[in-house]
């Protein structure tokens, strides 16, 4: 009798832990962007946040959703991608509105201009939507044609998680180029590091496809490299510290 009760308690505990982990994996990725969103709204400046972050995450999560058509993975990971896509669209809408309100250049740039020099630097939010929709339709069509190919499906999954894993490398390069991490929030990077570590552990525990946890480990390594830059450039400053207060932060490209 005692064993039965103990088994029931362990089952309930396991279910509770699984539920908490699922909620964390679904919403944990968007949490760092909440203070970012509030900072942009408060300062009416998106200078410290690159919309290319949104581009990378949109591409990565669209590809991940398409990957699930050919290779099953945990449902919380699917919802994580959906929530992240919505979040990035909200961020793009805010950044576009703020930039247009403060930009002196009156010339409007649009997606249908097909000018590579201004790719992902358009004037209206609807242009970003058009680009995302065009990419989604094209990627979905190719996936539909090649869904029976195991090589294509596995490559699609790797490309999806590898794209997301590379999210921090442009910030790494940006810091190196500027010889400073000024304007980048340490708290933000710590949140990314903890989130990526948890996510990678979740991949391992749930036996997610190999592409997921390999790229998760890579993402954690990039996060730690950025934290090292914070230490190095604060200890050995490479350029004069600006007197301008920066409140906006992001894993910018």
Provide a descriptive summary of the structure in words.
The protein is an all-alpha fold and 253 residues long. 70% of the residues lie in helices and 0% in strands. It has helices at residues 2-27, 33-43, 52-70, 75-102, 125-145, 150-165, 169-178, 186-205, 210-235. α1 (2-27) packs parallel to α4 and α3 (52-70) runs antiparallel to α6 (150-165). The chain is globular and about 75 Å long. The N and C termini lie far apart (60 Å). The model is unreliable at 241-253 (pLDDT under 50).
Q: Give the end-to-end Cα distance, rounded to a whole number of Å.
A: 60 Å
Average pLDDT, all residues:
82
The proportion of strand residues reads under 5%
Total E-strand runs: 0
From the structure provided, what is the oligomeric state, counting identical versus distinct chains? single chain
Structural class: mainly alpha
List the uncertain runs: 241-253
The radius of gyration computed from the alpha-carbon positions, rounded to a whole number of angstroms, is 20 Å
Q: What order do the SSEs take from the amino end to the carboxyl end, as H and E?
A: HHHHHHHHH
Count of helical segments?
A: 9
Q: Helicity range of the residues?
A: 55-70%
Main beta sheet strand tally, sense and closure:
none
Shape: globular
